[in-house]
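stage 2 :: seqdesign
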């Protein structure tokens, strides 16, 4: 059985304990930072010939936004990976050992993370704005 201090090491803010997967307010802030970065970095080429200063501003916003977002994602994922390793969750699953309530919380968090709507929206933004940037670049470079 786990001690109360061991249970508090990993605080679940977005797992099934909340009855459904809910994202923290902080995760939404970083999500919007990522969306702004996606749009900004892809807008660089669109405005480069029109306004080089604006293109530089977009580039800095995009790169800084990605930097901030991926630091957040790395820290979150590292925390989750560390907890999976600490409780030997993979070993327990492969050996079909009995799982503790804490193990189930970790699995719930992982499954909520995999079903995140924010990730799907982020992928859509990356896909859509990358395609738009590509079409604009082809138009400006080859058609116009």
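stage 2 :: out
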């Amino acid at each position: 059985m786990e001690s109360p201090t061991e249970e508090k090491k990993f605080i679940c803010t977005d797992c099934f304990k909340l009855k459904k997967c809910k994202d923290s307010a902080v995760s939404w802030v970083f999500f919007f930072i990522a969306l702004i970065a996606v749009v900004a970095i892809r807008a660089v080429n669109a405005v480069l010939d029109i306004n080089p200063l604006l293109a530089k501003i977009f580039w800095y916003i995009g790169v800084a936004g990605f930097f901030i977002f991926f630091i957040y994602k790395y820290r979150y994922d590292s925390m989750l990976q560390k907890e999976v390793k600490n409780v030997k969750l993979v070993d327990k699953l492969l050996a079909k050992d009995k799982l503790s309530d804490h193990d189930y919380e970790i699995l719930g968090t992982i499954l909520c993370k995999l079903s995140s709507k924010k990730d799907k929206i982020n992928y859509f933004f990356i896909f859509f704005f990358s395609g738009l940037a590509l079409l604009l670049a082809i138009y400006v470079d080859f058609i116009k």
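stage 3 :: structure notes
- Residues 1-8 have pLDDT under 50 and may be disordered.
- The helical segments are 4-8, 25-48, 52-86, 89-95, 101-114, 117-143.
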